[in-house]
Structure formats: C-alpha cells, structure tokens
Structure of DUF72 domain-containing protein:
Amino acid sequence: MTAALPYYLGCPSWSEAAWRATLYPDDTRPAEFLARYVQVFNAVEGNTTFYARPSEQTVARWAQQMPEHFRFCAKLPREISHSDDLCQQLDEVAQFRQLLAPLGARVQPYWLQLPASFAPSRLAELASFIEHWGELPLAIEVRHPEFFAKGDAERLLNRLLHERGIERVCLDSRALFSCESQAPAVLHAQAKKPRLPTRPTAFSQSPQLRFIGHPELLANDPFMLPWLDKVAGWIEQGLRPYVFAHTSDNRLAPELARRFHQQLMQRLPGLPELPVLQVEPELEQLGLL
C-alpha cells in the first residue's frame, strides 16, 4: 500500500485521459480518475489550483476520495504568486486556505511558485509574507537566475528558508533539455520550463523534487541516477521527501514515476512495490517501448 511508503511519489495531476490502459483501466471514467490514482500514488502536484480555484463542491469530493495518508501539494493561485506585492494578497491567501480546509493535513506543503521576475530585491517582501504565513507547511520555488548563482542572493534566500523550515522546491529539467526532438509537445515543454541549475536542499523534513523527464523513458536513467542516491539518503536520514515525475506532455509521467520507484527499490531493500491496477496486458507496456 502507498501508505507504507517512506516517501511521497506522484505526477503533476491525476486527470490525464491518456493514462487509460496504462495507469487506469481502459473503461475508467473521468470522475473515477482520482479514486484510481490514489490507489497507486500517495501524492500529486496541485497544478490545477495555480490556474483556477476549485469549487467548494469539488474540494468536498476530493476530500471523500483522498485517503488520509495522501498529500496534495496545492499551488497558491497565480494571482497571488505572480502579484506585484505578496503581502497585499494575504486576504486572498486566507480565502484559499479556507477553501482547501476540508482536505486537512492532506494539503502539505502548500507551494508558492514564484515567477522568474521575482528578483532578490524582493527578498524582504518574501520574508514578510512568510512571517504572516503561519505554521502550515510551505515550499517555495524560485526561478530568477540570481538565486542560482551561488552569490549573496542565493545565500540570503537559503538562510531565510532554512531558518523557517521552509523547503526550496528543486526543479530538474536537464533530461528534458537533453532531448533534441522537434515534436510539438517537447518544444512546448522546453519553451515553458525553466532551464536552471539544480539545487537539492533539505531545509525541512520533506525535501521537494520535480523531475522533468525526457520523452524516451530509458534516456532518463543517467539523470535519475544521482536523485536515486539522494532520495535514498534522505529516507535513511529519517526525512520523507516528495518526488514528482513529469514528461513533456505527461503521457508517460506515471511510467517514469514507476521507473524511479523500481530503481529506488534496488537501493532500499524492503521498499514495497507500487500497486498495479488491472489494465489490458498488451497495452500495459506501451509506454515502455
């Protein structure tokens, strides 16, 4: 059972129709996707909340379908994260947290994904926002190049987050950018995702990794290798990391997540296998070709 896993593993969403006959049985209806997803993975990125807030009815339905051990990393809406002043959005933050309150501890950590325009000059603003945030778990993703330059800006950011036990989300897009395919999905992903150095951190009990993969599953292995060692080490230290697998159009995200887990099992003897839902055998392996 995924409740027994010593780390959290998932995909960017649960609602991909393309996962029928690979992750989900072929006859799975969209309304059943979440209930099926939580049988295999124990976490998901809350990308949907970045673009649109769910209705109260939708949140209530999620609460019914998500088991207590499941983790939903809800992104703060972009009108908050991409505003001119985070501290002017505190009422919006309170409303958003109240909306998701029925999910309880399943929402952790919240994610604040800052735009590339959020520069070191706004660190005092970020510090003030964090002071108002409170005790709920929070993870922050930065994209401004100066936060990756190993200079004063990065040191100040890391000190701010470390002192408050706030995780710095690590996005690793190296596998994606190693791909030379001209497929529209790949080009779109390469245009959308940041191309920045990796910064594996453990400022809290739950380090956060977003792995943006190559569309050919086997091509990801050399890029996953250091992360397998890192995640295994974190688990052995008593931490509980989060790992989210992406591919260019996310059609193969579940297969990539499974591949990561299967290789992690070789480093951590006794790690249970992920459950496998019943799908058509001849279709189950399509994503591995």
Q: What stands out?
A: The CA atoms of residues 104 and 234 lie 26 Å apart.
